[in-house]
Amino acid sequence: MRALLRLIACLVVAGVALELFFVARIAAMVVVDPQSTAFQRSEAWQIALQQGRKGAWRQEWVPYAQISDNLKRAVIASEDADFVDHNGVEWEAIERARQRNARAEELAAKRAARAIARGKPVRPVQLRGGSTITQQLAKNLLLSGERTLLRKGQELVLAMTLELLLDKRRILEIYLNNVEWGEGVFGAEAAAQYYFRKPASRLSAAEAARLAVMLPSPKFFEKRPGSGYLGSRASTIMARMSAAELP
What we know:
The chain is mainly α and 247 residues long. 63% of the residues lie in helices and 0% in strands. α3 (69-79) packs parallel to α9 (205-214), α5 crosses α6 (149-165) and α5 (133-142) packs across α7.
């Protein structure tokens, strides 16, 4: 019994220490620009392992003022229309995503049964998230990409911590400088140079909308620049950009 109690105590202490570490990291971001994220380091490692090459990492930090307002509005319109108003988490969006995913998993199970009966490959189910920009930043900065309830719970806590310690402008600045826009392409400046051969400060509304649409699946759209969905969705985002409120 004593051994069990010691183990539980050690786990509690470790958990508290980890949370304090996360809080300290976020607090430092008030004045210190994060040079990399957990997600970026994981991606760089995967590229090195799979392709045997290093240095395939494009990123250049630029201040908030040097990122086109077009891109800020496009990303907010596409990813998180209520960004300036929420406290980091949109509970209704999470519930809607849960309901959509439950239906998607049910349909996927039926398709899988038919595919197996016909001897055809089973397609993986496509799940959607209800994450805000702040939640996405919390996950990319400090957490793994695994889909577990524990990881999701930690993401929610970190998102609210980000909102508590940083203002909306700083959160958006860090997000836009670190989000993935292709294999080894991170941040607005690298994306603008890679796709349009211009700085992020000069992105047009149309260019910004296309980049915003890429965010959920950047590697997919990187290989399909002529995608009909990319073009049509970008037009929709452009129409919404004027209503997007900036921090």
